[in-house]
Amino acid sequence: MSRPAFLILCALALGAGVLLSRFLGGTSSPPRDVEFEQADGPAGGGDEGSLGGTLAGRDVGLDGRGSGGPTNAGGGLPSGARTPTGIDLSDPAQRKQHLAFLLAMAEPDWAEVRQVLAAMGSEPLDPELKARLFEWFRTGPRRNEIGQALEMLGDPSAVESFLVFLDDKATPPDLRYATIQALATFRGGDPDTIVLALEPRLAGDWRTDVYLLQVMAQRGGTEATRALVRYIERLGDTGDFQPGILRHYVVANTPESIELAKEALASASSPEVTKRLLASLVRDGSAALVPSLLELDRDGQPDAVRLEVLKALARAGGEDALDRLLAHATSGGTTGRMALDAIAQLPREIATVKERERIRDLLDRAGLTEDPENTRVTTLRTLGELGAVESMDAIVLHAERGTPRVANAAIEALGRIGSKAQPKVDAIAGLYARADEAQRFAIVRALAGIGGSKALAWVRSWQDDTSVSNQLKTQLRAAAGRLVQQEPR
Known about the structure:
Layout lengths: L2 H24 L65 H12 L6 H11 L6 H13 L3 H8 L7 H10 L5 H13 L5 H8 L7 H14 L2 H14 L19 H12 L4 H11 L8 H7 L6 H14 L2 H11 L3 H11 L9 H13 L6 H14 L6 H10 L2 H14 L7 H5 L7 H14 L2 H11 L6 H17 L3
Helix pairs in contact: 2-3, 2-4, 3-5, 5-7, 6-7, 7-9, 8-9, 8-10, 9-10, 10-11, 10-12, 12-14, 13-14, 14-16, 15-16, 15-17, 16-18, 17-18, 18-20, 19-20, 20-22, 22-24, 23-24
C-alpha cells in the first residue's frame, strides 16, 4: 500500500473513532460530579464555584435564546443540552451545580428548577444564581412557569429582588403583576416583612392599591391587620372603598392580629369605617371575633352598620352567633329581615348539621314572623346553599304545598344541594305536569343541578312536548346537554 493511501485510511479511521465517541457520549448522562463549563465564559478567574460572567450591561431579548437569554455573554448551553441524571438534591454542592446548569440553558426546565428550589428550603441563594434567576424572571418568555418555580423560593432576601421590579417605573405591566403575585406566594416571604415593605408604597386610592392590599391580606398576620386598619381609618368616610376585594383572605389569623381587629372594631371613628372594617376583617370562621360582634349588635346602630354586623356574625359562625341571628329572625321588624338576609350568607363550609337543623326550624316558626312567606323563601334558599341533605323531606313538602314563590324556592334549593338530592328527583319531576311555566323553569334548572340518569330521562321526556314555549324548549335543550355531559363515560 502506498504511503498516501495509508495516511488516508488512518485519517478515516481516526474520524470514525471521533464520531463513534461523540455518538456514545451523546447517549449517556454526564457523570454526577461533572463540571459544567459555561459556554464562551470569561477565561479563567473567579472563585471556586463561581458561575462566571455577569448579567449587567447585556442586551437581553425576550426569546431566551443565544446571546438574548439570561446566560453568559455569547449564549450559554444549547437548547438540546441534557439535564444530568442522578442528582442528589440533598447535597448543597450538587444542588448549586445543578441549578447553575439549568439556568445556563437556552430554555430552562422550570419544573426542574422548581424541584431544586423546593429542595433548598430557606437556604440563601448564591448571589450569582439569584441574579441569573431574576434575570430570567425579568425577560423570560414563559413567565407563568417561572413564577410557579419561584413559589418554591425559600430565600427570605428575595423580597428585595422583587421590590426592585415593583419600584422601577420602566417595569412593564405584565412583569409588575407577576411580581405582585410572587410577593403574595413565594415560600420564603415573611408576612410581616413583606407588609412593612409594601405599606409605604400604597398610594391611598384603593383602585390603585388593590393588588398590594390583596398581597398584604393574603399574607395576613399582625402587620397586615395593623396596616389594613390604618389604611381604612385614613380613608375615613371618603371614597367608595370596596372591602369585597379582600373577601378571599383571612387577615387576622394570629392571636395578636385578632386582638388588633377587636380593638379596631371597638374604636372605629365612624359608622362607615365600622362597616369597612367588618367587611374586611371578619372572614368565614372568624369565631374569635364573635364577642366583639355581639357587642356591636345593639339598638341605636344605623341600619347599614347593623346589617354588616349581622352578616359578619353569619360569616364568623358558631352557636353564639347563630343564637343571636335566629332570635332576630323571629322577632320581626327591620332587624328580623336583616337577620334573615344575614343567615342566607352562612358559609357552607363551616355550617354544622346541628346549625342547619336549627335553621330548618325557621320553616315551622315562620308563621310567628311578620312576613311568613319571605321567611320561608329565605330559609329554603339558605338550606339549599348550605347543602342541607337532612332537610330534604321538609324542602320537598314546601315544594308540594307552598305558595308559588315558596314552592319555587324549595325546588331551587334541591338543585343547589346537587347530586345528593337525586333521591328526590321523582318527587320534583312529578310537579311538572301541573306547574305553570315559571315553576317548570325552576324544575328543569333543579334537575340539571342535581344530575343523574333519572333526571336526564325526565328532561328528555318533556322535550317531546311541542306545546311549550320556545324559551322552555331552549331551557330543556340546555339542561339535557348539561346532564349528558355529567353522565359517566
